[in-house]
Design a protein that fits this description.
By secondary structure, the chain is an alpha+beta fold. It has five helices and nine strands, in the order H-H-E-E-E-E-E-H-H-H-E-E-E-E. Helix 4 runs antiparallel to helix 5. The mean pLDDT is about 90.
Length: about 210
């Protein structure tokens, strides 16, 4: 199912778990996009756009866009017919998040994080910032403190997120170990979530949707 360059990239991972995660994520990506595009998963072609944001190169009459994120043992794939950004994070409860607050969050956001359930709130806001910068192809090299992600509606100064469009961010808990956010156009008023189990054995990987 994978292209030669993807197989080469997989072979460069030193850790088996990292190699398997890459193979599973690329296989799932091709399988799911192939279903949307009504073509063989192996025929889906990818390109790289601004700030290394990937896109479907050809055979895309639906103008599908996607974004892929992974953390720990979870992989999050978001698919839309408009710009989309996704981020999932494993809630590492021993992570020293206080060291990165001043460089990445506003005073109001820092106060919100420190108020209660600090580690959960930190990763909630972090996934929102990541999802938005990925949706706009801004990347994380900008000043994240200037990107407001508290609940509610915010105005952002021009040039901060490389986009003059309006954006909607939705956050959800995959379970008590992972939190995730999706950034999309505001007219995307419904998001469907599918849980995909990957079962591995000696013959390869099997995908099962729930």
């Amino acid at each position: 199912m994978l292209a030669p360059d993807e197989i080469a990239r997989a072979s460069r991972f030193y850790q088996l778990k990292d190699r398997n995660r890459f193979i599973i994520s690329r296989g799932a990506l091709r399988l799911i996009l192939g279903e949307y595009l009504n073509q063989s998963p192996s025929n889906v072609e990818f390109g790289v756009g601004e700030n290394s944001k990937p896109y479907i190169k050809s055979g895309n009459p639906l103008n599908l866009q996607y974004n892929l994120s992974h953390s720990g043992d979870a992989i999050l794939l978001a698919v839309s017919n408009s710009a989309i950004g996704a981020d999932i994070e494993f809630i590492n409860r021993s992570f020293g998040f206080n060291e990165v607050l001043d460089d990445n969050f506003s005073v109001a956001e820092i106060n919100y994080i420190k108020e209660e359930n600090s580690i959960d709130r930190f990763f909630r806001l972090w996934t929102r910032k990541e999802a938005l910068t990925k949706a706009t192809a801004q990347g994380l090299d900008g000043d994240l403190r200037l990107i407001p992600v508290l609940d509610g509606t915010h105005l952002i100064q021009p040039g901060i997120i490389a986009s003059n469009a309006n954006w909607l961010i939705k956050t959800f808990a995959l379970n008590n170990q992972y939190t995730a956010s999706i950034a999309s156009a505001p007219f995307v008023n419904e998001i469907s979530f599918w849980d995909l189990d990957v079962i591995s054995n000696l013959n390869g990987f099997r995908f099962q949707f729930k």
